[in-house]
Write a structure and sequence with these properties.
The complex is a heterodimer of chains A (279) and B (237). With 279 residues, chain A is mainly α. Chain A has a single domain (2-272), classed as ABC transporter involved in vitamin B12 uptake, BtuC. Chain A is built from 13 helices and no strands. Chain A starts with a helix and ends with a helix. The longest helix of chain A is centred in the middle third of the chain and has 30 residues, at 138-167. In chain B, strand 6, helix 6 and strand 7 form a beta-alpha-beta unit. Chain B is globular and about 50 Å long. Chain B folds into 2 domains: 1-66 and 155-237, P-loop containing nucleotide triphosphate hydrolases (Rossmann fold, 3-Layer(aba) Sandwich), CATH 3.40.50.300; 85-152, no CATH class. Chain B has 9 helices and 9 strands. Classes of the chains: A mainly alpha (279), B alpha/beta (237). Chain A binds chain B through residues 32, 36, 156-161, 163-164, 167-168, 170-177, 218, 221-227, and chain B through 47, 50-52, 67-73, 75, 78, 80-81, 83-87, 90-91, 93-95, 97-98, 100, 104-106, 128, 130, 133, 146, 150-151, 156. Bound molecules: adenosine-5'-triphosphate (ATP) and magnesium ion.
């Protein structure tokens, strides 16, 4: 405990905690929608795309890769959503193609143009997040805070609309709701979240951060609102616990958080079954 | 002017017509029943009216100041995922989305109105229940309440009684009749010709040819008298 208190005094630990908790909060918000709309594959595909774009940014030696990664990922989100809607099977294949392609392309680029001696370390940290969250700078924390506020505020403002298009898009469209527009907004928010979360857990594990809290909450609650709130709280707690464990034991941050999320899911599942059995 | 005027409309998917040359009119306060065999294009027509499916040719005119977001809809099947967490109130309230525009939250009046609709459809006691744990008939009523939240002017119902037991079916029909009496224009797809003949003011029949006319005209037409005869035979035999 003393050790923990001591660690909490250190600025970079504080930064990591703030950033980690905010990112976890944001990524859990849209989880329910993405899982229910069968959009979780978009999250997965996007994270690979973001990896590819990051590789390009690294090759171009951009000092601020956010400026390149963010708009391009948003663009891809919109494109993926379009293809995913038009023709179902082809859309699936297109997403698989783009995401795997981006992954391979990104690795290839890093391999050819890499200047650092520790290539596999670099790749590993982009894929799994490694410990980069602990080296996060004050400026990055600020960016993180601003983006999180934007995400949370837009989620709250569009909450009812997101519910309407998630529950029954046909009805929403029929009664004159601009479903296409709201799908677009969902895609853009997803892209922002993914780019944000790249820092925390790396591109391979992002889906876990988005999906686990939602699935856990769905075990326990039965209205959209309670599931959303529960998954946000769960995600917060898991991120906090995960980061603290990783600081204390020296395990990689990303995978520790995801492991905590998985443990959370297990607990919720057991509790959910127990509640169900009692009825 | 009529609420909806359809002229020589062809409906179908990807340029291939399912049903061609449909013409009819729906006036304010009408109760139109659409009948016809499975796969004859009834749902497709309804989706075309709702702009969910593109029309192939012909015209749909909305009159009487009817706006796009003043149409309520009860789909034939709602593919709600098995594990979708949503309470009855949340679903009913989502019907207001159309009139919300950019407004992010629902107003107090809207909440009251939603409760009133739930009361009317006798689902008020279910308001905090999870939608997927309701029976088919209860679910159908929840979706009808949502349609009513969307509008009171015009509702389109695609087989509202499929899967309901005889008692609930009659209740549902009576409900729809009451709605119609209180001024809501109704367009309903049904396979129950007896009900169509009992409740509708107009009938659109998809068969070898397309029939459109009032109920009385229908009973005298070839299509209608065919069913009337069969009903007679059943009653007498
Ligand atoms: N999404 C679709 N794409 C292509 N064809 C479709 C689609 N949906 C329906 N069809 C075809 O269009 C025709 C008309 O279907 P529709 O659903 O309108 O029939 P229906 O009259 O409502 O039948 P039912 O009484 O069974 O509900 C059918 O032959 C069907 O196979
Ligand atoms: Mg149908």
């Amino acid at each position: 405990m003393d050790k923990l208190a001591e660690y909490l005094q250190i600025p970079f630990v504080q930064h990591a905690l703030i950033a980690g908790v905010l990112i976890a909060l944001c990524s859990s918000l849209l989880g329910v929608t993405l899982v229910l709309k069968r959009f979780s594959f978009i999250g997965d595909g996007l994270s690979h795309v973001a990896f590819g774009i990051m590789a390009i940014a690294a090759v171009l030696r951009l000092s601020n890769d956010m400026l390149l990664v963010m708009p391009l990922t948003i663009l891809c989100a919109v494109l993926l959503l379009r293809t995913g809607q038009n023709t179902k099977i082809k859309g699936d294949a297109a997403i698989a193609m783009i995401s795997v392609g981006a992954l391979a392309f990104g690795y290839l680029l890093m391999n050819i143009f890499s200047t650092s001696g520790n290539l596999s370390g670099d790749v590993c940290s982009t894929l799994f997040g490694s410990t980069s969250i602990l080296t996060i700078s004050k400026k990055e924390v600020l960016v993180c805070i601003i983006l999180s506020i934007v995400v949370v505020v837009s989620f709250i403002l569009f909450y009812n609309k997101i519910f309407a298009v998630t529950f029954d898009e046909g009805f929403a469209r029929a009664s004159g709701v601009k479903a296409g527009l709201y799908n677009l907004i969902i895609a853009v928010i997803t892209a922002v979240i993914i780019v944000l979360a790249m820092n925390l857990v790396g591109s391979l594990l992002i889906s876990a951060l988005i999906i686990f809290p939602a699935l856990s909450a769905m075990r326990l609650f039965k209205s959209f609102k309670s599931v959303t709130i529960c998954s946000a709280v769960l995600s917060l707690i898991c991120a906090l616990v995960g980061i603290l464990i990783s600081i204390l034991t020296g395990t990689p941050v990303g995978s520790t958080i995801v492991a905590t999320d998985a443990a959370g899911f297990l607990i919720c599942w057991i509790v959910g079954e127990g509640l169900g059995a009692k009825k | 002017m009529s609420l909806i005027t359809v002229k020589n409309l062809s409906v179908g998917y990807e340029g291939k017509a399912v049903e061609e040359d449909i013409s009819f009119e729906v006036g304010k306060g009408d109760y139109l029943c659409i009948v016809g065999e499975n796969g004859s294009g009834k749902s497709t027509l309804m989706k075309t009216l709702l702009n969910l499916v593109e029309s192939i040719s012909g015209e749909i005119l909305f009159g009487d100041g009817l706006k796009k977001n003043e149409i309520g809809y009860l789909p034939q099947q709602t593919q709600v995922q098995r594990d979708f967490p949503a309470s009855v109130t949340e679903i009913v309230m989502s019907g207001f989305q159309a009139r919300c525009g950019w407004r992010p939250f629902y107003t107090k009046e809207e909440k009251q109105e939603a409760l009133a609709h739930m009361e009317r459809l006798a689902i008020l006691p279910l308001k905090d229940r999870c939608y997927r744990e309701l029976s088919g008939g209860q679910q159908q009523r929840v979706l009808l309440a949502r349609a009513l939240c969307a509008t009171q002017k015009l509702i389109l119902l695609d087989e509202p009684v499929s899967g309901l037991d005889p008692k609930v079916t009659i209740e549902m029909y009576e409900l729809i009749r009451e709605l119609n009496k209180s001024g809501t224009t109704v367009i309903m797809i049904t396979h129950d010709i007896e009900a169509a003949l009992r409740y509708a003011s107009h009938i659109l029949h998809f068969g070898n040819r397309i029939f459109f006319g009032t109920r009385e005209e229908y009973m005298e037409s070839d299509e209608g008298s065919f069913f009337l005869q069969r009903m007679e035979v059943r009653k007498n035999g």
